[in-house]
Structure formats: C-alpha cells, structure tokens
Specification:
Structural class: mainly beta
CATH class: Mainly Beta
Strand order of the largest sheet: 8-4-3-2-11
Shape: globular
Number of helices: 0
Number of domains: 1
CATH superfamily: Rieske [2Fe-2S] iron-sulphur domain
Strand content: 35-45%
CATH architecture: 3-layer Sandwich
C-alpha cells in the first residue's frame, strides 16, 4: 500500500507558465489510478486541472500539452469543442455548459509552482 502525502509537489519554475500561452503537464494518481493533469497561467495566476473533459472523459489537449483555443482566451476540448473558462474551469460553450473541469490545488512561491496532494490526488511515486 502506498503512503499518502500532503506535502507540496514541485511542478515547475513560475517562468515556465506564460499567461495564456502553453502549459505544463504532469501525472497524478486519481483515487489510486494513473491520470494526466495540466497547469496553465491565466490573468497572471497559475491554475491546474485534471486533463479530462467534463462532457465525456477524454483528454482535452488537441496536441500534447496544447489546451488553448486560437484566441488564447479559453481552454478547449479537442474532441467536443467545449470551451472552459481558465480561471475556474467552468464550461462556457459546447456540449456541457455549466459543468467544470476538476481543479488541482497549486501555489506559486519563491519562483516555483507546486501542486498539493489531497484525498483524491496523490503523486505518482
């Protein structure tokens, strides 16, 4: 049985996330099973989500690590075209309006971004 942790997990340098441009992907265990996650910066704030569309459980990125629509205003699901507000993960257009991406807690300190394990998400060891 794996030992659970609540210790912050280093993700990247803060400079690796540019506002509305690019992402950092990472692996987690969701309820003990491998899953993909990603972090982006929007309105100068780092946010992270499980890489899973709220409509049908498929990964969002249209190319590896590419989550932004052409205007770099929304996160987009490559399969369904659902558009998600990056600051809170709510679907604003597409097949699942009002549903949300699953957030993963992140924090930015001393030039680093870390994510925080909880009951649902644990690091892959």
């Amino acid at each position: 049985m794996r030992e659970r942790t609540s210790e912050p997990q280093p993700l990247c340098d803060a400079a690796d996330l540019r506002d509305g441009d690019g992402s950092v992907t990472f692996d987690v265990l969701e309820w003990g099973k491998p899953a993909s996650a990603f972090a982006v910066r929007f309105d100068n704030r780092a946010v992270a989500y499980l890489n899973r569309c709220a409509h049908v459980p498929t990964e969002l990125d249209w190319q590896p690590g590419q989550f932004w629509d052409t205007d770099r205003r929304y996160l987009i699901c490559a399969v369904h075209g659902a558009l998600y507000e990056p600051s809170h993960g709510t679907c604003v257009a597409g097949p699942c309006p009002g549903k949300r991406l699953v957030p993963i807690r992140v924090d930015e300190r001393d030039g680093r971004i870390c994510w925080y394990p909880d009951d649902r998400f644990q690091p892959v060891l």
